[in-house]
Write a structure and sequence with these properties.
TATA-Binding Protein, two-stranded antiparallel sheet, alpha+beta, Endonuclease Iii, domain 2, globular
C-alpha cells in the first residue's frame, strides 16, 4: 500500500475522534477497524479506499498515517486524501478549546478525559445535508439504519479482504429517482422531497464548498431554509458539520440542550435562548465547547 505520514495539530487522538462512527452497526461509509479508520471515496476517475491510523502516544502527537488500501486505475487519489484529511480535522487547532475548558469551574474535567478529540467534518455538502435530513425527528440509531439503506441503494462499493466499503452517494446518483423509491428505504415524504431538492441544487452548483466558503453564516442559513424540508436545525448543523463554522451552536438540538443542562445548569433542561446565552462567552469556538460537552455522554463522563 502507498502511504503518507501527516503530523497533526497536537494534541490529536484519532481513536477518540473516530469513536462516534463505531456506535451503529448500520454504518456503511465511515468504518472503524482494529487498526484505525477506513473510508471509500468516489472520485471522477474511480473509487479510492483509504485507511488512517495512529500509533499510541501518551503525548497525543504521533503522526497520522494515511494509506491507499485500493484505488481504481484512474482514481484521483490526491482528492480522496484531501477529503479524508479534512474529515478527520487533522490540522484543526485545539489548544484554545482546552484552555477555555480548563478555565471553567464546571467543564475542566473534560480536557483530560477528551484530550485530542476533534469534531469531524462531513466531506461534502450533499452528504452533510442528506445525513441531517435523515436525522430529523428520529433517533440517531434509526437514522443510521435509513442512511445505510440509502448508501447501499445509490453508493458505490469496493471489496477488500472480504469486506465491502461503500462510498456516500453522489447527487448525480439520484437522477431520475422517484420519491417513492426513497420512501421505500424508510424515509418520510418530506424527507424524500428535501433530499431530491438538495441533489438538484448540488448538481446546479448552488451548494459547492468553494462558493459557500465565501458566504456568511446567515447567508448560508437563509439559502438553506428556503429549500423544502430544511429548517433552522438542519441549517445550523450544516454550518458546523460541513462548513466547520465553530461559532454556531444548534441551540434547538435536544442532545445539546440535555448535555448543556447536565454540565452547566445542574441538570435542568435549558431553553434555546438559554443555550445561546450560555455559549455566547465562548466566542468563535463555542461549537467546539458544545461538542466536548455533547461527547461526554459517549465517553461515560459525568459532571
Amino acid at each position: 500500500m502507498t502511504g503518507w505520514s501527516v503530523t497533526p495539530m497536537a494534541p490529536y487522538s484519532l481513536s477518540r475522534t473516530i469513536g462516534a462512527f463505531s456506535r451503529f452497526p448500520a454504518e456503511r461509509v465511515d468504518r472503524v477497524t482494529a487498526s484505525g479508520f477506513r473510508r471509500a471515496f468516489a472520485t471522477d476517475g474511480g473509487v479510492v479506499l483509504l485507511e488512517a491510523s495512529q500509533a499510541e502516544d501518551p503525548q497525543l502527537s504521533a503522526p497520522v498515517s494515511i494509506e491507499v488500501v485500493s484505488a481504481d486505475d484512474f482514481a484521483d487519489v490526491d482528492h480522496a486524501i484531501g477529503q479524508l484529511h479534512r474529515q478527520l480535522a487533522i490540522d484543526e487547532p485545539i489548544a484554545d478549546v482546552h484552555a477555555t475548558l480548563d478555565s471553567s469551574p464546571d467543564l475542566w474535567p473534560l480536557t483530560g478525559a477528551l484530550a485530542g478529540l476533534r469534531r469531524t467534518i462531513d466531506p461534502t455538502p450533499f452528504e452533510g445535508l442528506v445525513s441531517s435530513i435523515l436525522a430529523q425527528l428520529i433517533s440517531i440509531a434509526g437514522a443510521a439504519v435509513v442512511r445505510g439503506r440509502f448508501v447501499e441503494a445509490f453508493g458505490q462499493f469496493v471489496s477488500h479482504d472480504g469486506e465491502e466499503y461503500w462510498t456516500f452517494p453522489a447527487p448525480e446518483s439520484l437522477g431520475g429517482v422517484s420519491r417513492d423509491r426513497l420512501a421505500s428505504l424508510g424515509m418520510t415524504g418530506n424527507k424524500t422531497k428535501a433530499i431530491l431538492a438538495v441533489a438538484e441544487a448540488c448538481k446546479r452548483g448552488e451548494l459547492s464548498l468553494e462558493q459557500l466558503d465565501r458566504e456568511s453564516d446567515q447567508a448560508i442559513a437563509t439559502h438553506l431554509v428556503a429549500m423544502p424540508g430544511i429548517g433552522p436545525w438542519t441549517a445550523e448543523w450544516f454550518l458546523v458539520n460541513v462548513m466547520g463554522r465553530m461559532s454556531v451552536v444548534p441551540a434547538g438540538d435536544l442532545g445539546i440542550r440535555r448535555s448543556t443542562g447536565l454540565w452547566m445548569m445542574g441538570g435542568r433542561m435549558p431553553t434555546q435562548a438559554e443555550v445561546r446565552e450560555l455559549y455566547e462567552p465562548f466566542g468563535e469556538r463555542r461549537a467546539y465547547i458544545a461538542y466536548f460537552i455533547l461527547s461526554a455522554e459517549r465517553f461515560q463522563l459525568q459532571p
